[in-house]
UniProtKB/TrEMBL annotation, chain A:
It holds the Pfam family POR. Keywords: Oxidoreductase. This is 2-oxoglutarate ferredoxin oxidoreductase subunit gamma. The keyword Oxidoreductase applies.
TrEMBL record, chain B:
Residues 256-350 form the Pyruvate:ferredoxin oxidoreductase core domain. The keyword Oxidoreductase applies. InterPro entries: 2-oxoacid_oxidoreductase (IPR052368), PFOR_II (IPR033412), Pyrv_Fd/Flavodoxin_OxRdtase_N (IPR002880), THDP-binding (IPR029061), Transketo_C/PFOR_II (IPR009014). GO terms for molecular function: oxidoreductase activity. The lineage of its organism: Bacteria, Pseudomonadati, Bacteroidota, Bacteroidia, Marinilabiliales. CDD domains: TPP_PYR_PFOR_IOR-alpha_like. It comes from Labilibaculum manganireducens. PANTHER family: SUBUNIT OF PYRUVATE:FLAVODOXIN OXIDOREDUCTASE (PTHR43088:SF1), SUBUNIT OF PYRUVATE:FLAVODOXIN OXIDOREDUCTASE-RELATED (PTHR43088). This is 3-methyl-2-oxobutanoate dehydrogenase subunit VorB. Keywords: Oxidoreductase. Residues 15-188 form the Pyruvate flavodoxin/ferredoxin oxidoreductase pyrimidine binding domain.
Length: 183, 361
């Protein structure tokens, strides 16, 4: 199994940390992982993206052009990556702020109202774990117990009290993902 | 399994330095390698192993602190990115001229000049062919993974002390900034003063006993006859490195009709390009130089009985390709493909370049 994922949105949405938690979850199930961020001027307030690869085998390139899954969290990222999902691949997006919805018919498309659900939970910082929940619902590549271990590993100890809230957010995301189009 | 973590390449350089018993780090911040010193500052190894971590007032100061530490037989290092390495170039040639062991890490960014903070491999010539003045060589290691960032710190020090020569880890913003799974090395204690006397007492400034002349760390000898003899000695040392220390990796080379040659992050991209090209039925392999000096010249030559063409891939306008051409000596076509100025090539672009530049011939 190899899953090549791009997660793209605004800086501050938790894109990089979601990728990190996903990568740690992969390590918890003995997979090879890579996490390649955009860095530099982009991360200082603009768009942010990270390429995450989980694989049972040695990972070749950490830098990719085409992806099995794209997780898209703003319009700029949609414009940049909608055509970079491999045919048969998966696109998951938050419709918040999206003006041009994806229309491809050769990929699976799912929608998750992450920003709205985070507001409902009363904590905007749960946004990325809601998205994670939606992703794992449609692509269950890591077990929830390994995500929990991943959270334990990647969050500093003083934030461990927030893990139950994060798990709740993952559950909420998992329950709330909507199918737009499947093959 | 040992201590397995998810870490950035830069952070791993710092952690590996602490764990291999490094005595001192002297640096000055510059993107994309600042996490090396940041990690050391957060880890505070001075409280754990006694390793000194010092932010110098400039790159020039940092490399001269390395010279001082190395003269005392200590395991010392510095790190920077391209423009900072240019500033250190004088100190590096002095280290080579004084036959001092040290580690210099270059997390390369695009140039020339201040250039960009994005990844590049355009410092190959500087690392391998000189950078500073005079006939000297660095031992140059090119990690292609975060794991190798860990492994090559200790290896660099081993080689530097074996040959009494500065070693360089030549990496770039891709390997420095990305996180991968890494198994960290076990902790080794720093050398004691007694151990340093035993290991390096014949040349290091460890105090003059009654039974020998004082040791002096210098690269100056105004007597040309002596300077030539010294240069012969250096050249013999470099030939010994070429004989004993060449490292490389071959991927999918057994039935290869074509070959990529690439190091560091470009090698990772080429590995994907090998997969993609083979799906198209193109039998291509990858030869990844791990040591850039000494260069795997013979390994490339041994491939020539089977391969019909070679594409050298690097994030530069074409530097390492010259060493590939020297090895191949006109026997098969050798072409270069590169993106530069901080642009990272995609595997798809590499396959297209192979088709156009090599298969199209």
């Amino acid at each position: 199994m190899t899953e090549e994922i791009i997660i793209a949105g605004f800086g501050g949405q938790g894109v990089l940390s979601m990728g990190k938690i996903l990568a740690y979850s992969g390590i918890m199930q003995n997979q090879e992982v890579s996490w390649m961020p955009s860095y530099g001027p982009e991360m200082r307030g603009g768009t942010a993206n990270v390429t995450v690869i989980l694989s049972d085998d040695r990972i070749s390139s950490p830098v990719l052009k085409k992806f099995d899954t794209a997780i898209i969290l703003n319009q700029q990222s949609m414009d940049k990556f909608v055509n970079e999902v491999k045919p048969g691949g998966t696109l998951l997006y938050d419709p918040n702020g999206i003006t041009h919805h994806p229309e491809r018919k050769d990929i699976n498309i799912y929608r998750i109202p992450g920003a709205a659900l985070a507001a409902e939970l009363g904590n905007p910082q749960t946004f990325n774990m809601i998205i994670m929940g939606g992703f794992l619902k449609v692509k269950p590549i890591v077990l929830l117990e390994n995500v929990k271990k991943g959270l334990e590993k990647s969050l500093p100890e003083r934030h461990h009290k927030l893990i139950p809230l994060n798990i709740e957010a993952i559950q909420k995301g998992s329950d709330s993902v909507e199918t737009v189009h499947t093959l | 399994m040992g201590d397995v973590r998810l870490m950035k390449g830069n952070e791993v350089i710092a952690e590996a330095a602490i764990r291999c018993g490094c005595d001192g780090y002297f640096g000055y911040p510059i993107t994309p390698q600042s996490e090396i010193m940041e990690t050391l500052m957060i880890r505070r190894p001075q409280e754990e192993t006694g390793m000194v971590v010092l932010q110098a007032e400039s790159e020039v100061a940092a490399i001269n602190m390395v010279y001082g530490g190395a003269s005392c037989g200590k395991k010392v290092m510095t790190s920077s990115s391209s423009p900072g390495i240019s500033l250190k170039a004088e100190g590096i040639t002095y280290l080579a001229g004084a036959e001092l062991p040290a580690l210099i890490v270059n997390i390369v960014r695009g140039g020339p000049g201040l250039g960009t903070i994005q990844p590049a491999q355009s410092d190959y010539f500087q690392a391998v062919k000189g950078g500073g003045h005079g006939d000297y060589k660095l031992i140059v290691l090119a990690p292609a993974s975060v794991q190798e960032m860990n492994d090559f710190v200790d290896l660099s020090f081993k080689l530097a002390f074996k040959y009494l020569n500065p070693a360089m880890i030549l990496s770039d913003g891709v390997i420095g900034q990305m996180m991968e799974k890494v198994e960290l090395s076990d902790f080794k204690p720093r050398w004691t003063a007694e151990e340093i006397k035993e290991i390096s007492g014949s040349w290091a400034t460890v105090g003059k006993p009654a039974d020998r002349e004082r040791n002096i760390s210098t690269s100056l000898d105004l007597d040309s006859a002596k300077q030539e003899i010294f240069n012969h000695k250096l050249q013999a040392k470099y030939r010994a490195m070429e004989e004993n220390e060449v490292r490389f990796e071959k991927i999918a080379c057994d039935d290869a009709e074509y070959l990529f040659v690439a190091y560091g992050s470009s090698a990772r991209i080429c590995q994907k390009a090998v997969e993609q090209a083979r799906e198209k039925g193109i039998k291509v392999g990858l030869l990844r130089p791990i040591t850039l000096f000494p260069y795997p010249t013979k390994a490339i030559q041994e491939m020539l009985k089977d391969v019909k063409g070679i594409l050298s891939v690097e994030m530069s306008a074409g530097q390492m390709v010259e060493d590939v051409r020297l090895a191949v000596n006109g026997k098969v076509p050798v072409e270069h493909f590169g993106r530069y100025g901080g642009i990272i090539p995609t595997p798809e672009e590499v396959v297209e370049a192979l088709e156009q530049k090599i298969l199209g011939k």
